[in-house]
Design a protein that fits this description.
By secondary structure, this protein is of the alpha+beta class. Helix content is 45%, strand content 27%. The chain is built from four helices and five strands. The protein has a five-stranded antiparallel beta sheet with strand order 2-1-5-4-3, with helices on both faces. The longest helix has 22 residues.
Length: 131
């Protein structure tokens, strides 16, 4: 059990480092949050300007939108893009997790979307820990 617990700790640290590395790609990217489908945050990496987006209500909104989007019968909702007066947000539906990428109002939508493959890989490796 202790060996397994140590392995999980090492894997979580590796995932956190990979999320932080993604933040360094573009100064307009404010944060990346990974939560389960019930909107419980699992892991995050963010700049100080992104603190307000880590609230439970914000993550819950993304989870609800993705969940109800899937119930419309048009297939699985893979991503949702939202714009606010001060941020651009991408919510990704990945296995049993939700990844939220937050960019500043001046960020490029292309830059946010270019992170998607890397975020999907990171979240997939994280979800293997919880299976």
């Amino acid at each position: 059990y202790n060996e397994y617990k140590s392995y999980l700790s090492l894997m979580e640290n590796g995932v956190a480092q990979r999320l932080n590395a993604l933040l360094q790609r573009d100064s307009d990217i404010q944060g990346i949050v990974v939560a389960d489908v019930d909107a419980v945050p699992i892991m995050s990496a963010y700049s100080p300007s992104c603190v307000d987006t880590l609230s439970a209500q914000y993550i819950s909104n993304c989870a609800s939108i993705l969940k109800y989007g899937n119930k419309l019968g048009t297939g699985e909702t893979k991503r949702i893009l939202m714009t606010y007066s001060n941020q651009i947000v991408t919510c990704l539906n990945i296995k049993q997790c939700i990844a939220i990428i937050v960019g500043s109002k001046t960020s490029s939508l292309g830059n946010l979307l270019s992170l998607e493959p890397d975020v999907r890989t990171i979240v997939s490796s994280l979800s293997m820990l919880t299976e």
